[in-house]
Each structure stands twice: as structure tokens, then as C-alpha cells.
Predict the structure.
Amino acid sequence: MTEPLAETFDDVLLPEEVDLVDEYLSSGARPGHDIDAPAVVYVLHLGSGAVYVGISKALDGRVKDHARNAKKTPLVIDTPLGPNASPAPSPSATFLMVHGDPNVVAVVSCPTRRHALLYEAILTEEIASAGVHVFGSGWSQHEAMWTRNEVKGRKLDSPAQAAALVAATP
């Protein structure tokens, strides 16, 4: 396995970027986090070739959670409950259940959670605009929780392709 790409996003945020993140947070999204605490944005290449973009203050534990979810079978209505079947606790857990084993391809250190939220949205948009199947920050409050974070597209053949998309993002 290749070492994940390691980058930093510590640009001084413009007032309109701060306002954008604060507006998103004021809508009730992602409550209970210290907005001024450091965080990382991480990118996973999944077994199916899809890409997952997330934020964490404790990356190792978060990746272990994702790996556990990737081994579960999503519970589908009218399907017999098998030994690994599990009701999906969240959209992100369901995405991991469907798309399989996570491989960390990039970690972007951010001085605050506000930076991380903004960069997660930027990175998700860049990957989606490249036509890649991605799950990441969907800020639209007009879409249902279960659909706003996923953009369908082509699957990537290798983790290196996902890392290259991150490296190309400003």
C-alpha cells in the first residue's frame, strides 16, 4: 500500500468563506463540534472505485469505523436478514456498506474545523466535476439527507487516481 498523500490547507479564509461555512452550520448541520479545533480532511478510495471525502479530528478511529461499516451488508426491505446485515445508521455508513473496503489516499491537515468543512466541500465538488462517483460534503439543504452527499459518476481503477485528483485541487 502506498503512503497517503499529505497536504495542508491553511489559507486565510475570506470573510465570505467564513460566512458560507457559518451559514451551513447555522442550518443545524454537523452540530456538537468545536469549530476552532484542528481537523483533517481525508479521502478514501473504496473497493468499488468510488471515492469518499470526510472530516475527522481522530482519523485512525474514523477509518476503523469506516472499515467496520464496509464489512456490513446493508439491510434491504424484503431481503432475509443475513449474519452481517445491519440497518444503515447514516448515509455515510450506507455508502461504505455498498462500496466496500476503504483505502486512505490523502490526508489534508487543517488548522480549524471551519477550514476542513470548506475544503471538504471544495474537494468534493472538484472530484464530482471530474465525473467521479463521490460521497462528500453536500451543503444543499433542499435535498434529502440520504441523497445530497452523493454524486454518481465513473469509478476509479486505482487509489493513485484518487490521490491525483486531490493533488490537482487548489
Notes: The CA atoms of residues 3 and 78 lie 42 Å apart. The longest strand covers residues 102-110. The chain has one domain: 5-167.
